[in-house]
Structure prediction request, 300 residues.
Amino acid sequence: MNEESQVQHCGRVALIGKPNVGKSTLLNHLVGQKVSITSRKPQTTRQRLLGIKTLGSAQIIYVDTPGYQQSYKKALNRHMNKTISSTLMDVDLVLFMIDRLRFFEEDEHLLENITKAKCPVFLVINKIDELADREQLLPFIDMAKSKYAFAEIVPVSALKEQNTEALEGTIVRYLPENDWTFPEDQLTDRNSRYLAAEFVREKITRQMGDELPYEVAVEIEEFKLVDEIYHISALILVERDGQKKMLIGDAGGRLKLIGTEARKDMENLFGCKVMLKLWVKVKSGWSDDERALRSLGFEN
Ligand code: GDP
Ligand code: MG
Prediction:
């Protein structure tokens, strides 16, 4: 290899957009592994998470952010908003995502904040697989250009992986010359323990529909590798007794389903067998209490 080809590029790329726009879905497809959990419900992503993709001379460090919330009532929301503002100060590129061809008030509000960042901003128009009429795309892009001087405007479908490779190629062109931050094969900054807890939380969120609000937390109590098998036990914290009953389900059926699904994801990511035990406990008021948040791993 000559000197020239050893120059490395590396940069941080923030995914910003209103809840449910598809940030975590896009991150997983770009990284090529499920590292960020997703669901139809807002507030699925609670903490900033890095997804890392190394290709050729470039290392892209994606920063997945929690859904931006308009309500400042609860400590959890306050914490998420702070995470977004501090993320903006610290990246080389922003992917501002919207859901198909509309700017909602929430989007406008976000865009206002994003433009304070001194780095280039891409407008990523997601969910184009759901567009009834793709002819509307071009006039919409023209309109968007007049809203802000976006460095690029890229329509994609994160879910169906339409145009995501082209997006990746464009991102690479914007990365500064920098040494890589992470080893070539690392996919995320989070450890297996954290990801295990997140997989359980994803299955709960997906299983429970609107019955269970967002006040659910998962703590890993045991995590050890014995004879090539991960033994993991997780404690699920809910707010009320009724929620505990619903989560467990008739004859424990629902909890069992959650466990089976979460275990599959863990085995897929860790590449070995997993024995998973789940427990449910009532701990009321946790989402409103900063101290409880910290004890559950929501660092500042
Ligand atoms: P986030 O809150 O922005 O992280 O959004 P998620 O990644 O959790 O996605 C929210 C929902 O939108 C999930 O049900 C995804 O399956 C769905 N979704 C994400 N991207 C697309 C897409 O390109 N097309 C369609 N049809 N659905 C998508
Ligand atoms: Mg998310």
